[in-house]
Amino acid sequence: MLSKLRLLIYGMVLAMVLPLAAQAKTFYWISHGSPADPVWTYFLQGAEMWAKSTGQTVKTSFHNGDVPAQQEALRAAIAAKADGIVTTSPDPGSLVDIVKEAKQAGIPLINFNTPDPSAHFQAYVGTDLVVVGKGWAQYLVDHNFVKKGDFVWMPVEVPGASYGVEETKGIKEVFDPLGITYEVTETTLDQAEIITRMSDYLNANKAKIKAIIGLGDLATGSIKRVFDQVGVKAGEIPVVGWGNSLDTTSEVTEGYVNAAQWQDPQATSYLALTLAMMATDGVPPAFNITTGALYEKDTADVYAKVMSAK
Amino acid sequence: MQRLFSRPEFGPLVLLIVELVVFQSINSQFLSVLNISNTLAFSVELGLVALGMTLLMTSGEFDLSVGSVFGLSPVIMWSLFNSGALPLEAAFVAGLLIAALIGFVNGWFVIRLKIPSFLVTLGMLLIARGTALFITDGFPQRTWDASGQWLAEVLVGDFYVGPFRIYMSLFWFILAAVILGYVLTQTKFGNWVQASGGNPGAAQARGVNVGRTKIILFVLSAVLSAFAGIISSIRTSAANPNSGTGYELEVIAMVVIGGTALTGGRGTIIGTVIGIFILRIMRNGIVMVGVPGLAYNIFIGAIILGMMALHSGLERRHQSGN
């Protein structure tokens, strides 16, 4: 009697689970970022939220800027017959062949966070980094913070990484014709080292720095601590830069940073996965989605709330 | 004077003085109160790690996991405190105990399983870093709730002497340097440390418990790294799971430049203190003299090579008795 009852329960559970299992698709979310980078934790959060809300399976991986490792992960996803893949571009041109392989296998491949037009992805979701850089430079010019002959300091965690390079291109478009000079310096990814290096540089060049553009989130999010260490008051030197961390939203609120760029990290992952799923349902996306907004003191709280909702 | 010249710390001291003179002559703000104050803030945090490493290297072993313990212990401490699981004092002790356990495991693997410390601590580096990432999901732990806590004030509170901003961490560093310097040069345990690194077989034959001595030093190295990491997390208002990445190599360089033998058997705490300031002042000075931002690493690398060449020359001269 008991064994029959058990059999019946097993049968009922299987009957409930099998249709669900049949419906669930598997997507791969593959990033060139680092799991230790606070911004990437928000991107990851978006992917996890999407999986939870839609009931689909999302397999995530980080590759710390290691191009061969990311290529291997993408090929593994193709070999595993993924229903869809969303990925960032670690370096321009590095995923050209893989995009072709995914197309041949009939797997939708959506690009997010870092664009690479040369690879011909099905769609791109994220910010245009050149436009972001241009926006920062234009903000400083429009608000009369910098003029011809002025010098702007641009700290970045990893010089040469695609995000800083693209942003600098945009900044150059605005500053070069106006005769505004600038210098990029390395902060590294280590918080104590960032504060030390930025404090040293600011201390040595305080007199000539008319504005600061934080090319990365850790650099911008360290401004308050650097200013406090060197004895610079909030607002004494205008600052713009990335604003994807709670450190920066509080800096904007307190007046240390004038304006910060929100990248919509959770939304970027969410939308990229949505496009991939749409493609698997036979509706191919033939458009890109641009995310992001430059915020000031009056709206900083909105983004702080988004980031606090862990 | 002859005694001063014959000391192993003489070469590094000359290097430090040369460095100070060159940077000050290029930028008169180099020895300004503000710059000295800023340089001391981070130097002493790395310095605490280097002091532990000096004793360990004197005993003939390495610890490559110091950087990840520097990151992991504050993450554990602040995770426990921020979640309300423990008060700050107990969370602080928990952070140090985890570090002590890591040091013990390192030592146990090296001594009992006879695996080279390079490999054991490389494995532990990955375990500790991965643990920090796993328990935080990659998010930095908030540390600004520490304001007003007596423990945070004792560990890293700051005060002004005239225009000079001094962090409490400087006193912890001085205290650790004095105690470890005394232990290494004036106590029986110090003799055991040097004997364990110089000739472990002979030391064992003369009754020195080489294994136990080394395990104690692995624990000390890990606990000092954790202590430095906790201090750093309060000062920088962030306990990042990736804090301390790459510190192990910088710390080993500080110890070696200071005059401790890479192969063990000879170590000097005074030399390490000088080595710490040689490397940190060099990084600060490069920025102060205004080298182009993206050329920073070229200059750092070139100066390290130049200093090591000068160090080697002074060392040869010292050993030949001139």
From TrEMBL, chain A:
Signal peptide: 1-24
Keywords per UniProt: Signal
Residues in Periplasmic binding protein domain copies: 36-282
Pfam families registered for this protein in UniProt: Peripla_BP_4 (PF13407)
Subcellular location, record wording: Periplasm
Family membership noted in the UniProt record: Belongs to the bacterial solute-binding protein 2 family.
Name of this chain's protein: Sugar ABC transporter substrate-binding protein
Record organism: Ollibium composti
Lineage: Bacteria, Pseudomonadati, Pseudomonadota, Alphaproteobacteria, Hyphomicrobiales
Automatic annotation (TrEMBL), chain B:
UniProt membrane topology term: Multi-pass membrane protein
UniProt lineage: Bacteria, Pseudomonadati, Pseudomonadota, Alphaproteobacteria, Hyphomicrobiales
Cellular location(s): Cell membrane
Keywords: Cell inner membrane, Cell membrane, Membrane, Transmembrane, Transmembrane helix, Transport
Major localisation: membrane
Xref: InterPro entries: ABC_transp_permease
Transmembrane regions: 12-34, 40-57, 90-111, 118-135, 164-184, 215-234, 254-279, 286-310
Native organism: Ollibium composti
Chaperone as UniProt keyword: no
Name of this chain's protein: ABC transporter permease
